[in-house]
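Journal club side-thread
Mid-discussion, someone asked how the predicted structure for our own chain would compare to the paper's figures. Pasting it here so we can look after the session.
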Amino acid sequence: MNKFKKVAVLCGGDGREREVSLRSGKAVTDALNEAGFEAVMIDLLRLKDADNLKDSDFEGAFIAMHGDWGEGGQLQEKLGKIGMPYTGSDPHASALAMDKWEAQRFFERAGIPVPKSIFIPKSYDDVMNRLGNDIVVKPCSGGSTVGVSIIHNLTPQNLNEALNLARESYAGEVMAEKYISGREITCAVWERNGKTEALPVIEIKPHEGYYDYTNKYTKGATEYIVPAELDSDTASMIQDYAVKAHEALGCRAYSRADFRLTPEGEAYILEVNTAPGMTATSLVPKAAKAVGVSMSDFVKEIMNKARI
């Protein structure tokens, strides 16, 4: 039996990930209705529009927002203030996961390897001396690989261009980290039966380039291997790291951790997503499906865990 009857699926927003969020919202709405909820998709253009839910007949909200205020804790805080139960992590964990630099410090304390990195790089010499010739420049906040640059053969010019792109994509701090060569790996977790369980590890193989915005959301542009072709020890290691990362940040209900796996079998965590994509090409539904959990059953489980 479902905990809620009428559910608002919050999606859209006014950021760079708006279109992806709308697609997630549509997929979640359809799945919730299939699972027996009365779900309504709501395009939440502004944070203050969430106040309209206070006097509505919605009993809970499924957050299908990506990036900015929708995923970074502000929406979660507002929903809590108006007494609306919502899915996923609380404001603190949401904000912490969104801050990639700060999240790395929590991962390190939990014993999860992270790439060597620099907060707000000051100069070309500083980056070259500390990180080397191959680096990644990214906004500390945001998602969907927006504003991310992978640089091989670092120069003052391409570093400056990457820093400007990151700053233009998301207002706020920027970080640079050492590029980790190897395989693109992700692992989702969800809380079930009183404990955090890892879903199967997925390997991500774009047909061209790296796993950027286009390859993430263009059907057929990327091959997903579920479960990833890994030896059992490596798969278990990544699953263990994903659970530890979820718990280190204080996440709730579900999350997805992204990794790079070196040819030597070392895994480095890149980030944790507290409101991961739920589109037709998204990774969490693929992982759930691999263990026989349908999209409708998955969102039902997450929705029934909604709380303030």
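Post-session note: The CA atoms of residues 246 and 255 lie 7 Å apart.
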